[in-house]
Amino acid sequence: MKPMKAGTKIGLAAFVLALVAARYWFYLAAEVALPANRLWFVVAFLLAASLGVFALIKRTSWLGAIPPIGAIVIGLFLPFTIAVSSQSVEANRVIAVGDTIPSFSAIDGASNAFDSSSLNGHLVLIKFFRAHW
User: Fold this and answer.
1) Cα distances (Å, whole numbers) of residue 48 to 21, 64, 83, 119, 127
2) Which among 86, 94, 89 is positioned nearest to 132, based on CA atoms?
3) What is the C-alpha separation between 18 and 44, in angstroms, rounded?
4) What contacts 130, CB < 8 A, 6 or more positions away?
5) Cβ proximity of 60 and 68 under 8 Å
6) Which terminal residue of the chain, N or C, has fewer Cβ atoms less than 10 Å from its own Cβ?
7) Spatial CB neighbours of 115, under 8 Å, sequence gap ≥ 6
8) What is the pLDDT of residues 25-67, one digit of tens each?
9) pLDDT in tens, 97-130
10) Dihedral-angle region of residue 86 (phi above 0 means left; psi in -120 to 50 means alpha; beta otherwise)
């Protein structure tokens, strides 16, 4: 059996880093606990993508090229989505407990139209999930 090429080893490490970072990211997203400062996620994903490119430069077997390519794709996904979707908070748009909610409409989980006016007269807890996109 031939020894594994250096690029293949680096590519596997890059892929594992990308998978671990992605798994933790989606775990936090499911728990609605994404951190406000996402710098370490961006660093981990870009490091995985960079290692994937480096692995391809160092040469891999044709089968060994799959993990670094996966690391590049996964590693560029989060930074790309952050770059293309800026988020801004409108000044003076803080809603406190007991305030009347602004009028809005949306599609609910069953794909039905929903209007906030249907909540008039009821106590309501509304939780908005804000991810990076």
Assistant:
1) 9, 16, 18, 47, 33
2) 86
3) 7
4) 87
5) yes
6) N
7) 103, 104, 105
8) 889 888 878 787 888 988 999 999 999 999 999 888 888 889 9
9) 777 777 888 887 788 888 888 888 888 777 766 5
10) beta
